Amino acid sequence: MDYKDLANLIFPDAKPIEVYEKMYPERNLPDGAIVTRFAPSPTGFVHIGGLYQALCAKLVANRTKGVFFLRIEDTDQKREIENGIEGIISSLKDFDVEADEGMISEDEWKGEYGTYKQSSRKDIYQAYAKYMIELGKAYPCFCSPEDQEELRKKQENAKIRPGYYGVWAKCRNLSIEEMAEKIKAGEPYVVRFKSPGREDRKVQCHDLIKGKVVFPENDMDIVIIKSDGLPTYHFAHLVDDHLMRTTHVIRSDEWLSSLPLHVQLFSEAGFKAPKYCHISPIMKNDNGNKRKLSKRKDKEAAVSYYSEIGVPPDAVKEYLVNIANSNFENWRRANKDAKIEDFEFQLNKMSVSGALFDMVKLLDVSKGVISRYSAEEVYNESLKYAEKYDPKLKKMLDNKEYSMKVLGIERGNNKPRKDISKWSDVRENIIYMYEKPTEYDFDKITGDEVKKVASEYLKVFDINDDKQMWFDKMKDTAEKCGYAREVKEYKSEPEKWPGHVGDISTAIRVMISGRRNTPDLYEIIKVLGKDEVIARLEVFAK
RNA sequence: GGCCCCAUGGUCAAGCGGUUAAGACAUCGCCCUUUCACGGCGGAGACAUGGGUUCGAUUCCCGUUGGGGUCACCA
Question: Which of A215, A294, A444, A465 sits between 20 and 30 A of A526, alpha carbons compared?
Fold first, then answer.
């Protein structure tokens, strides 16, 4: 009996790998094209870090005329979640980070290298596991969880490195006949990789982001096929990325330490290893400690959070690219209207250490993104947000013609207003354009003086005045009330007046809007209309 | 604990042996014919630490400290 017989005994129905090698040939792509992927587990939840990876992958694949595909890694049935795949696909769609190929629904896919769902690729993994057994590079292991627990304890007590390796790998030394016998007797088993590595030797691996990394060789006989017949991550990675002809594996940092294993796996299987890019995770400051954004503790970890607070997807992407390639910021300044996709994104410019997530900066980026929107876009996006999350805003926006005017104030010029950083800001931002203020935040001028200002201004107010005329009348009112016409005059001799035209206009601003900080008063008055303005002023004139 | 990675202002970061150590966010002034926002100008603010190597180290090497990752039939 030889390895081939053993392989046949374990996987009698598995096809020879040539079948798959032929079915999924090398891709015919231009030189330098990068084939990469986003390979999440279908928990339905897309982490901001996942989006970050996917975005980097897509950017770099598209830029090189390569392929970005979506593979679902669902080999752990315990973690399975209803509609998990749909959740991922729709999140990617929301951010316009859609894959060129891969899963497009729970069980449909596009592309020539499918299926892209690991749970449906059992036959393929088994074919390759069989191949490994034939080569004598994998073997069945009959150790029970209890056996392994015992092994671990023994190693711990002896203070030696725990794990299934070398002399501790009991089953690797079973004879083929013994193995066959146990299989025939129906003993449960897993398939393990027979590692040729030695812990006292070093391997050098290259990572496109981290650079040169040196590890002890892997000597663990890791499980490649679990007792349920599905592969572990490591083996699925080997088979899938080989067969899907991935050139660059872009994945999270936490995989870095299994790099020696993966490199060894590719080498032992006789396949060309992809290039690796390990991305540092996005961190959060938690009481002075850095830690990964956590799905459970941090609301901002979920990509869905950003649509809930109304940060446009573009802004989130822009922020993320910002973290990834810090030269993006300069590029953006020089290319205000260009698409993110046109930016020459580079993997090797990514930071080796994890960045702290900075909501303030995100909102600043978002502010810039929204300031470039037209009034119509702001209207449409606010409306979409309102329909989902803010009924009161929705009601306001129902008057489209008026709302467009409101949202168009100081917008569309070369110094557009930047006061909206998320759609959830909009209602508070413009509410006074829809209803009379209920509170008034007066500053310097109060009481009787307010009355005086209101009545003086009402005497001259004309909705049809042009801006210059309007402003001149503001100055006239200031003078009438005993205030300086010009700010400069006042500043040179501040003892001469109680204040200047700015104080007067602020008072009027407050009467009209309730607040001291608004966009251009002249435009507000124009949009509000004669009757409303007069009505609001009259409240104080009486 | 073993192994691995990392370390520049509050945050994100340029920098690759000789620099007045960029820039962005945040912060603080001033300016922009009224507020706010925008924009402009300016201020404050950093190379974790100890040893080497070198004529010279933020940059290279080693130790220390600190942070992070990883040690599964989870991915």
Answer: A444
